Amino acid sequence: MKTLLKKALGFSLAAVIAVSTLAGCAGGKNDNSGDGAKGTNASAMGRYLEEEMKLPEGMSKILQLTKLSDGRVRMLASDGENKTLIWDSEDGGSTWTKVSDLPEELTSNRAQVMTSAISSNGESAIAVMTGSDTGGTTVLYWVMDKDGNAKKISIELPQDNNQSTQGEGEPTTEVYTNAVSKFSYTDDGKLIGIDFENNIHQIDPQTGKIVKSFSGVAKGSYIMSFQAIGNTLVVVTDKEVQLFDLSTGNQMEKDAALNDQLLKGKDETALMQLLRGTGEPFVFTKGDGDKSIFFGSNDGLYSHTIGGNLVEQVINGDLNSMGNPEYSFISIAALEDGSFLMAGAEGYDVYKLYKYTYSKDTPATPSKEVKVYSLEENAEIRQAIAFFQKNNPDIFVNLEVGLSGGDAITVSDALRTLNTNILAGKGPDVLIVDGMPVKSYMEKGLLTDLTEILKQVESSEGLIESIKGTYSNGDKIQAIPTRFKIPLIQGSKANIENINDLSSMAEQIQKLKAENPDKGILGNLKAGDLVEKLYASNSAAWLKEDGTLNEDQLKEFFTLLKQIYESDKHETEDESMQMIGEYGESSFYNISGGINSLLGNKNMLNLGLLPEFSQYIQVVTANKKMGDGVVKLLNGQTANAFVPMTTVGISSKSADTESAGKFVAFLLSKDAQKINQGGGLPVNKSAFDEGLEAAANLGDVDVSSDQVSGLTEVSESDINDLKAIVESLTTPSVVDDVIKENIKEQAEQCVSGSITSEEAVKNVMQKINLYLSE
């Protein structure tokens, strides 16, 4: 083990150099827009390289993985039929030998492994939830010796909310029974478990008897990771990292360095995003000595001494699969030769085993760097970067996010800094122009022509024609949306068939309200939320050909907006906030956010954006449930509008347009476009067709959601309807966030009666025309 630590920490010195070279590469934590793509510092040599390893024969799911005290690696894995086996590898994961099968009771289709652990001696513990014909569930606990011989044990746990016990007994139909949620073994073979009520127990693995219970984790905390390391138990909650002394059971002094590395700067939303996968957001294993640890996260692999002030990066997650925001961790094994085996999952059902081996002849950082700038965090871009760098190890993609959310920087501030850097030749190579004045950038010659790059993608996979030319300039295409959203309106045929533009919508909404005074039409929306729902189908009308604001169109919008707003009751402001809190802000503005109110006859119309195929399935299914439900493109002051998403362009001042172009081509490829984080429908035609076909083939599958559940009924006609809508799209909405925020600000005052429609227009004209002239 000493050899292991010396090698790993020696390697990490190069990683520390690499980190300083690449400081601020993630999440916009740096405040530079760089000098464009360039060769990075190649004088520092040596970094860990990733290799994907094969799972044991026939296995598709990794449950647990641990390095044993004799150097072997032991894995618990199962196949597609839920059959679970124990495997050993004596060559660092290259080949695997079966040790034993687990009992059939553990591998039935009704059994679901809740948690498992493997000791350094090869013993294992598993908690399995099983179902019964009566609909009840029970949790069974099993332990296996080092040879795989299995035995069922009963563990009696405190029942704060239910006085029954759980173990070998008959299945229970009661709503709640306490159970072990996570297992971990200490170095000397003690079994540690934490239950649903956050009580920590030392459990006798032979009898299931609780030897002692420790001071518990705060009841309101959510356990994100749980691992015994030496004589210390590491518990990562959604609030802090807590350490427990395993010899006394007492909570230890807070480790500020570890806490900051794992949790600092992560708000509730960021933490919830980390919990989307099958595994956990953090993983731990022992280093050399009782308090030495290695731990992994999407940022990479680190070494740390518990209680110390230093955290050293051993492997930079930005250069491999660890940086994929969809990747979650199952376990890690630190091998004697200084390499690491990492078990994890991409999403919910794709399990991966990676080996990280140090290469002294590889530059500590890639020889080329492409700088990408985005105003907002973008999950699709993050995931695409991880895939791209895996296939292009010589190029480092450095993403800077202008609005981190943790400071007082406004959109205008961020754009002003970006524009200054671009003009000074210090800007990014690739721009994600969402929220930016893209047409102004085109007119000023700040974006290069993408035509040749697009030809490459078109010749092999195709691009949706109605979207491809969104930002054409003569015979040039200087930016292209990699995704798009569609504004839709849903309701009964009688209620929406006469809605063809904003004026007819206002008229129809007033008519519906007069006929149905006790029903909601669009619901209790705040003015700003109503603007969000109408923005896509109206904003293009507000700009003239010369780029200035259209005063007449703005006046009509504010006038009709007030009419629409006043057609619903607004006694409280709770509904919008409640919906946003429950589903997230972007989900609230999507078409799925209003299906429930439509089906429940709370509201008569549903407006929203279509960001992914699964939501179209929900819409179609809801329409069938309504009987007379229909959905169509929402036209406003502009017809056939759509929302360009993750629109990409290459800076004309980039020092390496070849590398930048390679990255842009990948963003438009089917491999990248198949990534779905709800950021929009793919512009790649092959990815679009495959995604739509997959949605159509979901027939007789339960598409349960918070809004609608039941068997899908997507017909060929439904699919053709969506294709026809996409083919009809011609006009991109205005993606400039400065304009949108000013419209929303004036809308709030206008509908409240604080100012007139004319005054709202005047205020917008003053602010925005000044902004557009900069």
From TrEMBL:
Superkingdom of origin? Bacteria
Query: Is-annotated flag, keyword Signal?
Result: yes
Keywords, sorted A to Z: Signal
User: Is Nucleus included in the keywords of this UniProt record?
Assistant: no
Signal peptide residue numbers = 1-23
Which SUPFAM superfamilies does the entry mention? DPP6 N-terminal domain-like, Periplasmic binding protein-like II
Name used for this protein in its record: Maltose-binding periplasmic protein
Species source reads Robinsoniella peoriensis
